[in-house]
Amino acid sequence: MKHYPLLALLNAEHYKTKNNIAVLLFLLSPFVVTLLAFGMSIGNSSEFPVNPWIALISKKLLILYLFYPFLASILIYSLCDLEYRNSNFRRLFTLPYSVHAIFTSKILFLIEIVFFSTLIAYLSFILSAFILSYLSPESSFQDYDMRLACFYLHVRLFIGLLAVSSIQYWLSLIFRNFVIPIGFSGFMVIFSLFSFLSMNTMNVEYRYFNPFGAILTSLNDFISYQSVSLTKYVYVCLVYIFVFLLINLFTFKWRKYNN
Questions:
Q1: Taking the CA of residue 211 as centre, how many other CA atoms within 13 Å lie in the half-sphere pointing to its CB?
Q2: pLDDT tens digits, residue range 198-211?
Q3: Cβ(66)–Cβ(193) under 8 Å?
Q4: Distances (CA, A) of 249 to 74, 237, 245, 246
Q5: 244/250 Cα distance (integer angstroms)
Q6: For residues 132-139, average pLDDT
Q7: pLDDT of residue 26
């Protein structure tokens, strides 16, 4: 019988995090927030004066998308903290697997969690709009075809969250202290919000290089009907992902000897 180390390590990641609150929070937050927004939108067609899809996401779901990077930072730190407890990092490196295999399993697990959270956010949004078109036909959801725009919005959300997660993973590998990684994420989210609200010619270009502001950029493009494409910031986020994956790999190897 063949033995697949990567599959075994990935199964171990699932087992370790099956009761992890941060994982559940990251996965279920999109559904819970969208459900609340859905409940508040039933019968309130006056809240959707023009395009109800845009009104729903900009008025009711903005809080979710704004703090998504912060939720990602909590998730990442929680995953690293599992290894910090009781010197689990030291035990992890005594397993009969290569460092590359262990690191790859952790990255694949992270990608899986981000993917399913983004998928839940996408399906929850689409289904809530679809149901509202029947329960409140006066809201006019059925008069707009925003499916492709919603798809691109969440593809960009997925890539942006991976970029943020790769940066936060490096910080969580370097600092065991909860305050520094989470504090940095909180600062960047607030900084991105203020930068976005005070946009001028200079920081319109700058915002594309800030992965923490990527989701705000996506929302702005969605609201202005410019999101049916993968724009510049997506490619910038892909560069962040690639660069920090390499940095994280070397940091992970360093952590092997610095527990």
A1: 25
A2: 654 445 556 667 88
A3: yes
A4: 20, 18, 6, 5
A5: 10
A6: 73
A7: 92
Of 67, 41, 35, whose CA–CA distance to 56 is shortest? 41
- How many CA atoms does the CB half-sphere of 186 hold within 13 Å? 7
Element (H, E) at 258: none
Question: What angle in degrees, to the nearest 10, is found between the helix axes of 5-16 and 99-135?
Answer: 60
Task: Identify the residue whose tokens are 């559940």.
Answer: 24
Tokens of 227: 């999101």
- For residue 2, the model assigns a pLDDT of 47
d(CA 149, CA 151): 5
Q: How many CB atoms lie within 10 A of CB 93?
A: 16
First to last CA, the chain: 35
Per DSSP, helices labelled H in the chain are: 5-16, 21-41, 52-55, 62-84, 88-92, 99-135, 147-174, 179-197, 201-206, 214-223, 232-256
- pLDDT: is 150 or 224 the higher one? 150
Amino acid identity of residue 199, one-letter, is: M
* pLDDT at residue 214, as a whole number: 74
Residue whose token pair is 């005070």: 198
